[in-house]
């Protein structure tokens, strides 16, 4: 499949069909394609001689997709950044990526003025350039097809949590994305002209499960934004408008939140026939409730790290699966990849034995952007079907039984919370940057194998803590200035000293026991 050509064919067939909807705003296929063409021509004139990545900043604006395609049509990978991310975090991503261009379909915060980058912003008079002006000036112009990203070029770079406190950029090529899209179309039996519900931000790769599967099949992406999610009344008002949804894509946590409302049933979404879940553990309880309330729908559980392009396993979850397995398996591996369960020496383990899950195949990332040392630790080359492929050691514990993959949690200090992958060391490093914090250990509080929330154990530089409430509020506020909200621990426990083990390291196991 030529991904861009496939979408272009739909532009010719259904030019006036809506490609993306967000509230009252929308883009037709023709608008999406013509605007991204104009943007690509402009990008090629200002960055003509390199393929440096371009940052695209915003939330659920349809022109986010315009910017994505404008980048790749001009030979540049894009870095999606959601506006909910703290300024400090964004500045670190800008610094690491060494980007020369920032594009935004919304208003940029004043703090994001970056003297080494050209900034295009559509809703601010602060900048000379605007997307609207570019669309008008370069209207009707077509970029050279030769400039497009090729199969081995980076298509996008997704920044995730890093254990050192610095975000790391996961490089994904057009070949990686094509492998996922071809598999997803067949695996989930995607038909033409379907309405996809998009819940997760474009900076989170689960969004590729709705946006790209929709656009290569002539479908429509309907975006749910963070304000709706924060306000159930507004969310369910939007659902009344979105009753034509055919395919629901989200984290399981979002579905669990919606299930609290008793009217969240098949009658609310009479045309809904498919649920696609990714990003965290899909529990039996959630699966059972959805099965009961949406009898016409098929449920899919999937698994995959960002480093292997969205998802590499899939399982159709039916009543028999719910009854026979607890927890649910994450599914069977996609046919062009192989999952190996390996021991600490990298040797393959037999069926049923737990070890580290490694992924081999064309879905695997080339490595971390500008970080060869970290890449060497987890990426390597392996053989599959008599060919050499990139491989990735996920750090996830798992086992395989009769081809079914069972996820058993993290091997290290990385957790999934509400669909977001979080390095606990990242939070700890940022806590230690707060003046009053001497040391910090962050641990997950789990229930039924799922991370419910985070707790931080903290020792203070000054042991005086007369008002713990004010201290906790201050620490959380300072941390929220550096990290996304979902990475701020819900609970903080002060310790006079951290328990240590014989080799002089913090005894995390003993701290974990305090949370039981």
Give a quick set of tags describing it.
516 residues; Rossmann fold; Luciferase, domain 3; five-stranded antiparallel sheet; globular
Structural account:
With 516 residues, the protein is α/β, with parallel strands linked by helices. The chain has four domains: 1-172, Rossmann fold (3-Layer(aba) Sandwich), CATH 3.40.50.12780; 188-334, Rossmann fold (3-Layer(aba) Sandwich), CATH 3.40.50.12780; 336-410, Luciferase, domain 3 (Roll), CATH 2.30.38.10; 415-514, ANL, C-terminal domain (GMP Synthetase, Chain A, domain 3, 2-Layer Sandwich), CATH 3.30.300.30. The chain has 16 helices and 26 strands. The strands form six sheets. Strands 2-1-10-9-11-12-13-14-15 form a nine-stranded mixed β-sheet, with helices on both faces. Strands 16, 17, 19, 20 and 21 form a five-stranded antiparallel β-sheet that branches. Helix 10 (252-259) links the parallel strand 11 (247-250) and strand 12 (274-277). It is globular, with a radius of gyration of 23 Å. The mean pLDDT is 93.
